[in-house]
Amino acid sequence: MSVKATARITAVPDGRGATALPVLESEGPLALRRTRSPEPGYARVTVVGAMSAPLGGDRLAIEARAEDGALLAVDSAAATVALPGAGPDAGRASYALRLGAGEGAELRWLPEQLISACGSALDQTTRVELATTARLVLREEQILGRHGEDTGSLTTRLTVHRAGRPLLDQQLAYGPGAPGGWDGAAVLGGNRAVGQLLLVDPVLETASLVSRVLGPTAVLTPLAGPGVLVTALAADARLLRCLLDEVLEELLHGLRAARGA
């Protein structure tokens, strides 16, 4: 039997320099837990998988919003593993992430990896709505197959709007049913870990960033707006995370310096 579930998070300033969570609603396999934040002022929420999901046919969603002035960080306790359904007619699973941040708010979306297990079929969509002065740090990582197995069928779409206008819209597809060449030398080149790191911040509007290569399998691309996108490939999840963590620390350091200037 397929599962339909939506978890919801709303963060607001508490008036004392911290962030409160008036809405923290878990459902189905999506269990939300408030955890200790390493940075003052932020509310941190960790997504804990209460059961194996998504399976074929499941419809899962998370809605997370940082209201005006709120600071919200969301991570997860473990990787999300897309698995085959219980029968041949289970169909594709879907995982919808609907994120938002208001004026002066910051949302950090830093979950663990999404693993596409052999035989699975998943469509993941991430839609972000940002106010003009909102800040965003978003990381997505896809691991194509568990150790020693082929990948499942996976499509992902990341759409970001700022002040009602499009900032980024990209779609990726891997595995059975994907357009030919997805695993060729011009795309993955034998790698099985794919990651995107997106930063949006008003201070980037005046930053003089230029596109540059980050090692042999990653690139940093400024967006046509106050944002920067890092796209990376790696042989495995550990190498991918190390690369993205290094770039994230560099970018955050630059942003803190720019705000203090």
TrEMBL record:
Major place of residence: cytoplasm
Compartments where located: Cytoplasm
Family annotation (InterPro entries): UreD
Any coiled-coil regions, as ranges: none
Alphabetic keyword roster: Chaperone, Cytoplasm, Nickel insertion
One of the Pfam families matching this protein, by short name: UreD
Family: Belongs to the UreD family.
Function noted in UniProt: Required for maturation of urease via the functional incorporation of the urease nickel metallocenter.
Subunit structure: UreD, UreF and UreG form a complex that acts as a GTP-hydrolysis-dependent molecular chaperone, activating the urease apoprotein by helping to assemble the nickel containing metallocenter of UreC. The UreE protein probably delivers the nickel.
Protein name in the entry: Urease accessory protein UreD
